[in-house]
Amino acid sequence: MPNSISEIPSPAVLIDADALDKNLKRVQAVCDSAGVELWPHIKTHKLVPVLRRQLELGAKGATCAKIGEAEDMLPSGVKRIFIAHSLADLQKAPRLKALQEKLDQLILAVTSELQYEALEKMLEAADIKVDILMAVDTGLSREGARTPEQAARLAEKIRQSSRMTLLGLYTHEGHAYSAGSNEEIHRMVPEIREKLAKFAEAVGGGVTLWPGCSATAEIMARQPGIHAVRPGSYVFGDLSLSETARIMDFDDVALNVVTTVLDRPDQGLALVDAGAKVLSSDRSIGGIFGRGQDLRDLTLTRLSEEHGFLVGEGVDELPLGQRVRIQPAHVCPVLNLASQVYLVRGEAVLEIWPVDARGRSD
C-alpha cells in the first residue's frame, strides 16, 4: 500500500478522512436536533465502511437505488433499507425475498398505478409483505403522483393490497440543485414541504413525510412534520453543493480526484489524465466538469474519455507530471466509475477501500 498521495498512480479518487467525518457528523447532528430520522442514500458513496460509520453516528436505516446496492451494503450491519426506485422486473422477486430475510425492515417504493400493479405481482411471486413509501412529485417531474387526487387514488390501491402497508410519502426534490443559489433553496424548501403536506392531506391516515436531497436536507429537517430525510452526496460534497447550492464550504468537500498534467498542446490549455471515464459527463450548473481543489482558478471545461481539458490562470506554468486535485461537478457517478478509493489525511494514505457497490445498476 502506498504511504503517501505522491505514491498513488493517477488518476485516483481521494477521500479526506477528517472532512468526511465532519460532514457525517454535521448532518446527523442537524437531524438529531430536529428529531428527524436520517436514512442516507448510499448511491453516492457505495462504501460499506461509510455506511457503517453513518449507522454508528445514528442513521436509522439506509436508502438504496437498486436491489444490488442493498445486497452489497449488508456487511455494514444495516437492518433497515428503503429502495427508492420503481421495481417492476418479475425476475428479481427471489432476490427481494432473500433480501427481506436478512433485514428487520424492507421498505419499497410505489411510484404510479401502473408500477403498483407490477410490484404487486413481484410481491406475490416472492410471497412477501412489505412496507411502502409512495412517491409524489414536488417539482422534478420524474416519478410520483402529480396531483393530490392521483395520490389519493394510488394510496387507496396500496391500502387495499394484502401485501403492502403504506407508511408515508417520499419525494426527490432534485430540482433544487438548479436553483442557482443558497437563498433560492431556502425559499424553495417551505414550498416543497407545503406541497408534501397537501399530498398527505389528500392521502389521509397520518402518513409520514420522507423528502430526500442533499441540497435541501439540512433545511428540510427543520421544517414541521418531516419524519425522515434521505440525502446522499452530503457525505463528500462536490461543486453542486459547494459552489452552486453553497450549503457547504469548498474546503469541506471530502472527495477529489488526483490527476496528472500530461501535455500542454496549446497556450492556455493543459491536458490531464482524468477524463469522462473518471469524472463522468456531468457538469456543474456553471458548465464545468471540475475545479482545482487547491488551484481554484483552474477548471475542467471539456472531457474526452481519457483526457481532461484544464484551463485557467497559471495553466501555462504547469510542468508536465505535476499533480492537480480536482473537485468534481457531481460526485455520485465518480464513485460508480472507480474500483477503489484512497482514504487520506494530509499527505498520508490511511486505507484503500474497494467501492463495494460499484456498477450495481441491477
Numbering strands along the chain, what is their spatial order in the largest sheet?
Answer: 10-11-14-13-12-15
CATH-derived architecture of the largest domain: Alpha-Beta Barrel
Unreliable runs: none
Number of strands: 17
Largest pleated sheet: 6 strands, antiparallel, barrel
Q: What integer value in Å does the Rg equal?
A: 21 Å
Tell me the CATH superfamily of the largest domain: Alanine racemase
Order of helices and strands: EHEHEHEHEHEHEHEHEHEEHEEEEHEE
Tally of distinct domains: 2
- Percent of residues in beta strands: 15-25%
Secondary structure class reads alpha/beta
The helical percent reads 25-40%
Q: Tally the helices: what do you get?
A: 11
In the CATH hierarchy, what is the class of the largest domain?
Alpha Beta
The gross shape turns out to be globular
Distance between the termini: 32 Å
Topology-level CATH name of the largest domain = TIM Barrel
Structure description:
Helix 4 crosses helix 5 (113-126) and helix 6 (148-160) packs across helix 7 (182-203). Strand 6, helix 6 (148-160) and strand 7 (164-171) form a beta-alpha-beta unit. The chain is α/β, with parallel strands linked by helices. The chain has helices spanning 17-34, 48-57, 67-73, 93-101, 113-126, 148-160, 182-203, 217-220, 239-244, 276-279, 332-337; strands at residues 12-16, 37-38, 62-64, 80-83, 105-110, 130-135, 164-171, 208-211, 228-229, 255-266, 269-272, 290-292, 298-303, 308-312, 323-328, 340-345, 348-354. The chain has a 6-stranded antiparallel barrel with strand order 10-11-14-13-12-15. Strands 3-4-5-6-7-8 form a 6-stranded parallel sheet, covered by helices on one side. The protein folds into 2 domains: 5-12 and 248-354, D-serine dehydratase-like domain (Lyase, Ornithine Decarboxylase, Chain A, domain 1, Beta Barrel); 18-238, TIM Barrel, CATH 3.20.20.10. The relative contact order is 0.16.
